[in-house]
């Protein structure tokens, strides 16, 4: 099991870690990491690992192992014995890629707050993102009005905070889960809730986010698409 430092502090750009395994494909497993692993529509982090000899190994992405508890760091090229179990290395994420994703991910939470409909899908990209909603009323598709509502929440600079509940507490409060196709990860004994402001948004989420909505910066509704009889895809972008 990898200790996920990004869960408690998404602003960590570097950390020290120990190599606990290198799998048959050359994937690197650490005792702890700041690299977010692909999940919940958010891509895994890229960055670098620095070996004891000072050599940098570029990491293309990070993914979960089958157990969903262990994170595998995928190098861009074979490591050819450069790392061995027990080595102490330095991790560094590509912050120029991570931070815009944090801004977009937070903005998508706000989007789900101004469009209180079941979420059927979503993704975070570099500078853009989308959510799919189960919406029957096509008249809601007004980009300018939605952008104004979104920027009102951004400009209010609401603070973000996290809370933890048990699986049983989530089962007793199913309305917390907005996503229809993706359920919060279970198995660790607790589930993280992300709260925005006092009552802007509260839902389970394991992604990385900014500290306050003001840090999102200018964002707009880029496109609204009809995907099926009552499915609407709303795309946002940083400006």
Summarize the structure.
This protein has helices spanning 5-8, 95-114, 143-155, 167-171; strands spanning 3-4, 14-22, 28-30, 32-33, 47-50, 56-64, 71-75, 88-93, 119-124, 128-134, 160-165, 191-196, 201-204, 219-226, 231-238. With 239 residues, the protein is of the alpha+beta class.
Give a description of the structure.
By secondary structure, the protein is of the alpha+beta class. The chain has two domains: 3-93, Elongation Factor Tu (Ef-tu), domain 3, CATH 2.40.30; 98-238, Threonyl-trna Synthetase, Chain A, domain 2 (Threonyl-tRNA Synthetase, Chain A, domain 2), CATH 3.30.980. Helix content is 18%, strand content 36%. It is built from four helices and 15 strands. The strands form four sheets. It has a six-stranded antiparallel beta barrel with strand order 2-3-7-6-5-8. Helix 2 crosses helix 3. It is globular. It starts with a strand and ends with a strand. The mean pLDDT is 91.
């Amino acid at each position: 099991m990898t200790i996920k430092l990004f869960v408690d502090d998404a602003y960590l750009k570097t950390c020290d870690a120990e190599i606990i395994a290198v799998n048959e494909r050359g994937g690197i497993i650490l005792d702890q990491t700041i690299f977010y692993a692909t999940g919940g529509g958010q891509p895994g982090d890229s960055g670098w690992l620095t070996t004891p000899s000072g050599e940098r190994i570029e990491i293309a992405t990070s993914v979960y192992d089958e157990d969903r508890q262990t994170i595998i760091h995928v190098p861009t090229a074979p490591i050819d014995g450069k790392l061995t179990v027990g080595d102490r290395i330095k991790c560094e994420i590509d912050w120029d890629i991570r931070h815009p994703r944090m801004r977009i991910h937070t903005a998508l939470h706000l989007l789900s707050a101004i469009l209180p409909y079941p979420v059927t899908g979503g993704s975070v990209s570099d500078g853009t993102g989308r959510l799919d909603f189960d919406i029957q009323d096509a008249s809601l598709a007004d980009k300018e009005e939605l952008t104004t509502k979104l920027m009102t929440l951004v400009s209010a600079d609401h603070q973000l905070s996290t809370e933890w509940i048990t699986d049983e507490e989530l089962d007793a409060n199913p309305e917390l889960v907005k996503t229809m196709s993706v359920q919060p990860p279970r198995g660790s004994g607790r589930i993280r809730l992300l709260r925005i402001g006092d009552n802007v948004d509260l839902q389970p989420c394991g992604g990385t986010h900014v500290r306050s909505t003001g840090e999102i910066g200018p964002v707009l509704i880029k496109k609204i698409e009809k995907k099926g009889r009552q499915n609407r895809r709303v795309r946002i972008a940083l400006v």
